[in-house]
Amino acid sequence: MAVINRVAGFAEEMAEWRRHMHRNPELGFACHDTAAFVVARLREFGISQIETGIAESGVVAVIEGRGEGPVIGLRADMDALPMEDASGADWASERKGATHACGHDGHTAMLLGAAKYLSETRNFAGRAVLIFQPAEEGPGGARVMVEEGILDRYGVDEVYALHILPGVEAGGFFTCSGPIMAAVDTFHVDIEGVGGHGAYPHETRDPVVAACGIVQAIQTIVSRNHRATEDVVLSVTQIHTGTVDNVIPQTAYLNGTIRSFDKGVQEMVHRRLREIVEGQAAAYGVDAELRIEIGYPATVNDAEAVRGAADVAREVAGAAPVVTDRPREMGAEDFSYMLEARKGAYFFLGQGDAPGLHNPAFDFNDAVAPVGASFLARLVERAQPAA
Fold this sequence. Notes:
Blueprint: H1 5-9, H2 11-23, H3 32-44, E1 49-54, E2 58-64, E3 71-77, H4 104-121, E4 127-133, H5 141-147, H6 150-153, E5 158-166, E6 173-174, E7 178-181, E8 183-192, E9 196-197, H7 207-224, E10 232-241, E11 247-248, E12 251-260, H8 263-284, E13 287-294, E14 299-301, H9 303-317, E15 322-323, H10 336-341, E16 343-352, H11 369-383
Helix pairs in contact: 2-4, 4-11, 7-8, 9-11
């Protein structure tokens, strides 16, 4: 792999940083120890323009290049997942109920690697803005950082992010123009009936039967209300009701997820959910309330940014593939908020054969960290060549 020689030279140091973060995962906005670790490394690199406490524990650092020029933002997420570590690694999580099963420890280590190189060489014009973000796994640290003005305050012109991807060739790059990750919404349905004895259902208004009717009818949204060429997923993921075999319960609860790319499709799903819940509730003689939580928007890559970043990827990938027409994913990503505010692109970096993301056995492949760090650094150098 044609990584930058200097970056390859401190690959083991990047692995040490990454493994430290894997041992000490943090959740949501409370990434304070991780942020302190990041700041300590940045200061070691000689970077002095550092802002902390953004979105509670986010960090932004600025590396000044040689003279005036554009401003490129590079983002890494820092938070872990609320699950146990089953990786079996010597550096497994030491914090119960938290582990880096989505590779954010690797993302942060790669951005630190790029920061170390760029701060040493400064072979670019303008500025590199390094964004270390909490709460990607929820409820959306990127949104808060944008709302707190980091893109405006630091004059960011374009923004890029890299995410590890297991199951594809290690060191390869994968992306597409336009939507690459879906918008995600969550729906809740609370059903209120009349409970009673299981032997006398005629004296009740059964919320269990109503819940089953609602779930069945919801399936027609995807199968009958949208064009087959437009991607949408609607999954009921929870049904909770009842306590014992001889009691018809008073209430039932449904919950699920909606994934879409097109705002028109998203609005159609919301409308049909309301119509179905109201209609089924009337049919079964119960009361039902639908609540929809609007989540992350679709992650949409700028075509020009993809072309330029793909050229950079080809420089550093060596023999590994660089794929720019990868099918879009139904997963969601809060980097979408930054791409709504600025042009840029989101790339996947191949991890090789490994357990999937969000699997408790997942562990970042340290061998690809120099590839990712080189890509991030060369993005800045290529987009902002020094005079």
